[in-house]
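Protein in question quoted for reference:
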Amino acid sequence: MVGLTRWIEKMESVFQISGCAVENQVKFATCTLLDAALTWMNSQIRSLGPDAYSMTWEVLKKKMTDKYCLQGEIKKLKIELWNLKFVADETEKIDKYVSGLPDNIYRSVKASTPKTLDETIELVNDLMDQKLRTYAERQS
C-alpha cells in the first residue's frame, strides 16, 4: 500500500512539473509500471482494448487501490489515524523521543535529565557528534 501511495504521489508530481495533459496521464503513468502492476495493466488492456487508456487518472487510481490495497488494511489505517494521541506533556514528549535512541545514548540522556524536548534533542546531537568524533579518531 505504501508503495502504491508513493507511486501515485510521484506520478502526480511528474504530471504537475511536466504539464502532462490530462488525456495523457494514464498513458504516461502506465508506462512506469513494473512487475505485478504491469501484468495487471496488460490484462486491463487485453480486456478493454484501447479504451483502457481513455480512463481518467482518478479511475486508474481507484482501480489500482481496489486491486492492491486490502480494505481491512485501509480501515485499520483510518482507525489508527483517528485514534492518534497528541502528546502534550513535555515529559511524555521527552520519554517518547528518548525511547527510540540507541542504548549507549539513551543512558547518557536519562542520566542528565533534560527539562525540555529541545534540550533533549540538543543533548542527543552533541552526544552523537562526540561518538562520531571518537569513532573517527579510532579509525585514523
